[in-house]
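Exercise (ungraded).
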Amino acid sequence: MATGPTLWAKIWSSRKAYLFLSPLFLGLLLFCYYPPVSGIYHSFFDWDSVGKAVFIGLDNYRELFRDQVFLDSIPTAFLILVPRLIIGIVVPLIAAEMIFNVRQKKLQSAYRVLVLLPIVAPGVVGLLIWKNIYDPTNGLLVSLLRGTGLIAPDRVIDWLGSADLIIPSIIFMGFPWIGGTSVLIYMAGLMNISSEVIESSELDGAGLLRRIWHIDLPHLMGQVRFFLIFGIIGGLQDFGIQIVLTSGGPGYSTYVPAYYMYIEAFTAGRMGYATTIGTVMFAAIFLLSLVAYRGMKTETN
Amino acid sequence: MTQYRRLPQWFLNAALVALLAMLLYPLGFTLWGAFKSDVAFTATRWYPTLPLRVGNVSSAFGSIWRYLLNTVFVAGVGTAGMLLIASLSAFTFARMKFFGKEWLYMLVLALMMIPGALTLVPGYMLYKTFGLLNSYWALILPLVTGGPIFGIFLLRSFFESIPKDYFEAAQMDGAHDFKLYYRIALPLCIPIMGTLAIMQIVGAWNEYLWPMITIADHEKLTIAAGLLISFTGQYSSNMPVTFGGYLVASVPLILLFTFTNRYYVQGLLSTAIKL
């Protein structure tokens, strides 16, 4: 081939860059590229936890789409994901706007630090504290409701143990939902808007809400898109609440696909079936984030 | 009219203080919960009281110091390795011209889109095949191999924003590429590396799923998994000691945060994280 020598010459002349990148790609090849390929590959196998794999074609997929626990776990995942996603995008934005509009610089930077403070407690601790807040007999929520007379003084509410309350309880968890890192990412975006733009909008008589709607929001679309896409990717896979608080219960009411995958792999030892769930989730997450990305893109351009 | 255009500052401050109070209440709850006696906890758990029972904290410390030590070791080694690889790679992508650059960069970024759901089980089987389960390797290697991906994403745009003159002047003096990296690029990116380091350390601190799966020997568990295992079992009836455990588990992060929050805030505010 005519391009042969020049191609090799190009590669040879880039050898230094490749040398610098070699530690990265060695690790990536083995621990980041191989596992997803292996996952998709083994979704066609009966793979046990010892590592013995027997090819079974599409049997795992056939079983999965008749598996009622899996089918029911899909709507549950969205019931939890969608509200939490909206909350996770909107609430930090409101908080960022509030802090951004504080004029006293010292107060502003104090708020910025305080809003981050919750990261000092491990996430597990946060969940376990919510377990206390939701305690049916003397948790904070029940005590507050009793104290304000909204419920009878001897009333017991099992927030995490009743099938009707569990999903709202999970959504409410983390109130007031101000993620410090998200607030700062939004603030970085707000600070990038030139003050001339803001001042001239104010001279034109635009009020605060109009300014936020017409100037701030369009500037922050990149951040919103970031939170949306990584929120979908992360949210659909998250099963921390199930592991720490609910074990998927009551009944199967908090089973989400990711938790089901975990159970199938690490308590039932069905590695092949678990990778099938993982592969289906991958396809769904990929499509959803693509749709979200496209949808957001046309809106802003 | 003008006072209607902007929210009055007193209102803004009052609303923020109220929100922050709600946000920080669980932390306060942990703090005073850790210093109560069993009886006091039942009666007055929602607000602080005297006397302080320091004994809770020390008995909690006795049962989790091992997890803390493990976490410091794992997060420390893992983060150092991650920072080295991420900064060198980001520098290469930002500052060097080479064949296949954008293509290789996309290969790295594409990994941010690979969900953990797809890789959890095969990843576990891979570590099993290599005989790395139940060892510190199983905890450190994921930080060093997967950790740099986001770091490269963040640092590349940062390195690209450094004015060319900095590097050209040094090149005139005959500095080679590696020297440009560690003499110019590295010192400039220390604040943002601080941000990355904190993200990674906090991530390692919070990770419980992977350690619970890969580590059978409790002596090697990191803190989040250790807390889940020891405090949902042995101490679950003694709430003050449990909260003492939460508090002790948070102390190293509190220290880290106290000394580095400026870098973290600055780093986040100086980079545009968006899509």
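Further reading is listed at the end of the chapter. For now, observe: Chain A touches chain B through 103 residues (CB under 8 Å). The mean pLDDT of chain A is 88.
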